[in-house]
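Lecture notes, unit on protein representations.

Consider one protein chain, 144 amino acids long.
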Amino acid sequence: MIKAPWPPLLLTIALFSAPLLAATNPWLSASLYGSDNRYAALRGVTLSGEAGHYQVLVKNQFGFQCELSFNAAQQPSQLSHCDSPEQGEQWRVKEPHIKLRCTTRTTEVVCRGSYTLQAWDPSQKGFSTLDPREKDYFTIARKR
């Protein structure tokens, strides 16, 4: 008799829980919208990927694409590794990780996080912070 190194029930949970969680997370099937800075109008946000490895593309002024993490309550909790491939890397987010705070409103759920915007400066041959006193905001939202 061959004995499995783990109980069959745990294996079953491990194999089927990730797809089940993905199917019940409302953010994965909703039409998302948002913005990539405090002055931008709300535009479409594209979510792609699979369980544990999601990316969002904010179709706005800077065209930032970021990795998106969800918390245990299935709310967006963090953006990371944001870049702007559509803008030829002229813009970037200084912070490697952006914590998102979600608020449930009457008709929508809105998640926001602040970041420092940097622009390519040819005279410096590097990126510089436009105004270090001011923060910009990512916003990702969905209808309830």
